[in-house]
Amino acid sequence: MENVTSLEQLKPKMQMGDFDLVAEMINAPSREAAKMRLRRGDEQALNALKTLIEKRESIVKEFQNGNNQ
Fold it and tell me: In terms of domain of life, where is this protein from (predicted)?
């Protein structure tokens, strides 16, 4: 994934629960706080979401290729 400049670039790859996980990753008090930080372009929040999406894609690809032993 290229450099992230906005939430709009990541939205198509988001899934249910991503705001909750980002909140946990950045120690935000709630999913709403994480959502607001993402909407405001907070670098830490955007990096957390980018990492979450990249890791999820990697895990899915690994399992689909049968490398899950």
Answer: Bacteria
